[in-house]
Amino acid sequence: MTSTSTTPRGGLRDFYEDPAVPVASGDARSLRQARMLAEALGPAGADPSVVLDVGCGDGTAARAAAPLLAGHRVVGVDWSQDALRRARTHMSDVIRGELSDGGLPLSPGCADAVLFSEVIEHLVDPDSALDELRRVLKPGGHLMLSTPNLAAWYNRALLLAGVQPVFSEVSLRGIHGRPGSEVVGHLRLYTARALKEFLTASGFDVVRVAGAPFHGVPKLLRPFDRLVCAAPSAASILLVHARKRGDGAGGTAADGAEHRTAGAA
Which residues form a coiled coil (predicted)? Predict the structure, then answer.
């Protein structure tokens, strides 16, 4: 996970540094997202694309996506030293960096694409985070963002019954008022409509919205959960492909991927 400038240095940071806190959300979402990105980038040529996996966690998502992104250079970025130690077993390039405190240790316009998977829901200041992602992307660069859907099909039913929606949390110490037993630190939740409007206002053009299943759905309901992915607005997980609007930003993929600061892992 990555942090923003208004994230407390104590509570949330300590929470995400806890090895017991989950840093991956299953291969189904990772594979669907990687397919979308592979289609957008096309086959790797003599000049492979640079893909930043911002909030790479332990690298398991990158491992699942690797066969689909063969030939492209995937660079993992995270502020958690513990997560990066684990990510090194799956990724050859990792950088320690934050979306705050001066931004990511990368030059403007250095990346062809950014993977931003299950991160935005953990941020206090998502506006500044998207500003930083725009900075490191080339004009027309791809943003592949995934996040839980507040309007997932079961959340609609739960709200009607007066039950706290899945994915939402009122405490970092325990689960209260909703199904589940795992605290994961969600601060922001989006519907498909809200997410599209937010990305558009942040300087991106939304190309496609797709759905993905959630591994936490009870086993008997998983076939239905996969079926609902055909209607992204009701799916468990939202997958969004957006592109940065051209603004003349400079930088090259090679320069940016090699750029490091004293904070790099």
Answer: none
Q: How far is it, in rounded angstroms, from Cα 114 to Cα 111?
A: 7
| Model pTM score | 0.83
- For 81, counting Cβ atoms within 10 Å of its Cβ (0-12 exposed, 13-18 middle, 19+ buried), the class is exposed
What's the pLDDT at 189? 96
Query: For residue 1, is it within any domain?
Result: no
**In Å, what is the CA distance from 132 to each residue of 101, 114, 135, 203?**
11, 11, 5, 11
- Report if residue 2 sits inside a domain: no
Residue 4 placed within a domain = no
Cβ(70)–Cβ(35) below 8 Å: no
229-247 pLDDT tens trace:
999 999 999 999 999 987 5
State the amino acid at position 262 in one-letter form.
Answer: A
Could you report the per-residue pLDDT of 51-106, keeping only the tens digit for each? 999 999 899 888 888 999 999 999 999 988 888 999 999 898 999 998 877 789 99
Q: Work out how many domains the chain is built from and give that number.
A: 1
- The answer to whether residues 137 and 51 touch, using CB atoms and an 8 Å cutoff, is no
Domain containing 247: what range? 11-258
With 0-12 / 13-18 / 19 or more C-beta atoms within 10 angstroms meaning exposed / middle / buried, residue 230 is: exposed
Whether 92 is in a domain gets the answer yes
